[in-house]
Amino acid sequence: MVEDDVSGERASVGRRLIIGGARSGKTAHALALAKSLSDARGVNVTYVATAQALDQEMQHRISLHRAERPATWRTLEAPAGLAQALRGQDASSMLVIDCMTLWLSNALLKDFREDAPTAELPAWESERADFLQWLQAVRRDVLLISNEVGAGIVPLSPVARRFQDEQGRLNQMLAAACDEVTLVVAGIAVPIKTFRGGRLTT
Predict the structure, then answer these.
(1) Measured in Å, how far apart are the chain's first and last C-alpha atoms?
(2) Which InterPro entries does this UniProt record tie to the protein (predicted)?
(3) Which of 28, 124, 153, 195 could be 179's S-S partner, Cβ–Cβ 3.0 to 4.6 Å?
């Protein structure tokens, strides 16, 4: 684990999970952190977008996200085949993956059946396994943005319940694989897993 000094703090080079609810400020925190780290280290940033502009609302949301990030950042669109797309990237570039939730949703909907809500999801299970394998092996700065969806009520529809379950499992797997995990609440970043001085703290 390599460490650099960023804004007066010791910051590990590695995998970071930034998690929070809707409109919690998690994306803003991730973008600010990526800019700070990339400026300090003199590296390029690749923003990996998993959203698909399937309707006017999503097109509007995507345009807002584009306006939030520096124009110098490269954008890679990877709504599916995420690990495969990442393996072809410049190894020196920092990655911001936004977001794990939409990537999950894209894969889950390929196989989900209302009449068999607990059945296996081959497309999602393959995507998840491939990405986790990539994440375990990667040795550069990666910032993952993901939603916390388990703090509310149990959803009414079978697909929403399955999505909530899969998102919770995915977040646990990502947190286990990442060197640092930050929970963003009301715009405030709360460290819940850190790597400092060669040892893990939670």
Answers:
(1) 17
(2) CobU/CobP, P-loop_NTPase
(3) 195
